[in-house]
Design goal:
Elements (H helix, E strand, L loop, with lengths): L11 H8 L3 H10 L5 H12 L3 H14 L4
Length: 70
């Protein structure tokens, strides 16, 4: 039996479908940004790339946790 994906990654399928970019591309954008704080990155994704708050928050949270928080 497969366990359901939980946490920020649970948003990934809908992010890819809605915005047409793979998650790896979003993570690379986040990592290449000069911004380092969680909410700065969320606001930037919303303003510059048109993401909704929940999707931007999930991407930033997951990416920063992978990187051990910039």
């Amino acid at each position: 039996m497969t366990e359901a994906v939980k946490g920020p990654a649970s948003y990934f399928p809908s992010i890819e479908k809605k915005y047409g970019r793979p998650i790896a591309e979003w993570k690379e954008l986040i990592r290449s940004s000069p911004l380092t704080k969680h909410m700065e990155l969320v606001s930037w994704l919303k303003a510059e790339h048109g993401l909704g708050h929940g999707h931007a928050n999930a991407l930033v949270a997951h990416t920063l946790s992978e990187d051990g928080a910039k």
